[in-house]
Amino acid sequence: FKEITTLCTAFSQGKSSPLDELSLQYSDFAVWQREWLKGEVLEKQLNYWKGQLQEIPSLLELPTDRPRPPVQTYKGSTEIFEVDQVLTERLKSLSLQSRVSLFMALHATFSLLLSRYSRQDDIVVGVPIANRNYKQIEPVIGFFVNTLVFRTQINPNDSYEQLLENVRTASFEAFSHQDVPFEKLVESMDVERDPSRHPLYQIMFTLQNTPMEDFDLPEMEVSLFESHNGTAKFDLWLSLAESYNGLDASIEYNSALFKPETVDRYLAQYVALLESIVKNPNQDVDHLPMLPEQEKNILLYDWNQTTVTLPEIETLHQLIEVVCAENADKVALKCGDDRITYSELNSKSNQLAQYLRMRDVGPGVFVGLCVERSINLVIGLLG
Fold first, then answer.
1. What is the mean pLDDT of each run of 10 residues along the chain (383 residues)?
2. DSSP string for residues in 333-371
C-alpha cells in the first residue's frame, strides 16, 4: 500500500518513481538461504523440531458435523466476528502483566478451546511467520512466509497464567528456529502422508499485527472489499487482525466437515473464554467458563422447561394406570431381550400390590427390594 500510494502520487504529478532501487532481489535471498541453511546450521534447527514434535498426535480429534472424506476436498467458507475494543485492551493489559505478547495470549486461549472440544491435552497448531528477519529484505518483492508448528501441552490443573508461561517459552524457542522451510521439516520427519488431512497440523492460527498503511490515492476514494474464493486450506484457520475497533477476526473452515452454525458457536465460545480469562487469569484452565450468556440460558433454562400439566389424580401409581390404559398394547419396558407391554406391567404390578396387602403392608410400612436391574425391579417399585 505504501509503495502504490507513493507511485500513484508521483505519476499523477508527472514525476518518475521516487522509490529507491532495491539492493537485493528475491533470487539473491534464495541463493543466500540455500548457502547458509545447510550443514551444522540446518542440523541444529532440524534437531530442535524433531525433538519438539516427537510423538505428536497425528490428528486433532475435533467433533465434526460430517465424516472426514477419504481425500481432502478444500471446499470452504468463512465466518466473520469481532473482539470489541474493551476486551482487546484488557487482553493487552493482561499480556503485559504476564510478560507475553498479545499473540501468545490469543494463541494460548485458542489452544485451550481446541483442547476442550477435542478432549486432548496435546494441541498442535500451524502459525505462519513473515520470515523477513533482516532489514535489507523488508522491501523485497517475494513470498518469504514460512509456517511454524506450535505444540501446546495443557495441564487442566494449571492456572491460565502458567499456561501463558508455557506458551511464552515454546514461542521463543520456535521463533529461534524459524528458518527451516515447512516442507523440509515434513520431509526430514518422514511423516506418514494421508490424503484426507494436512501433515503435522490441521488447524492454523494467525494474528496480523503489522500496522496498516493508509491507502490514500490522489483524487480517489479507496476502501477494502472482503471476498472469499470458496476454498479452505485447513480444517480451521482462525485469523485475527488489530484494528481501531479492537480485533477483526475471521475463521476459514472446511465446509465438508463443519456447518456454519458450528463454526459460529466456536467463535462465540472463544470470545467467552477470553472474557473469563481477563476476569480471573489465576483460575485453573479446566474451570474457566466458555459458554456465552445466551448459550448458557438455552442449556440451563430454555432446554430445561420440563413443566407439564398433569390430570387431577392424587398419586403417581394412579397416573401410571391411566397411561397404561391409553397404551395397553405398546411396549412399556425393554431390558436386554425381554419386553413387557403397558397392560402387562399394570397387571403384574396389581398382582404384587394385592399380595403385599395380604401381608398387611399399608401406608407407612417399609418394604425392601432386592432385585437386579430388570423389568421385575420396575414391577416391584410400582407394586
1. 88 92 91 91 94 91 94 93 94 95 96 96 94 86 93 93 95 93 90 89 92 76 82 95 90 96 94 94 92 88 84 82 92 94 96 95 92 94 93
2. EEETTEEEEHHHHHHHHHHHHHHHHHTT--TT-------
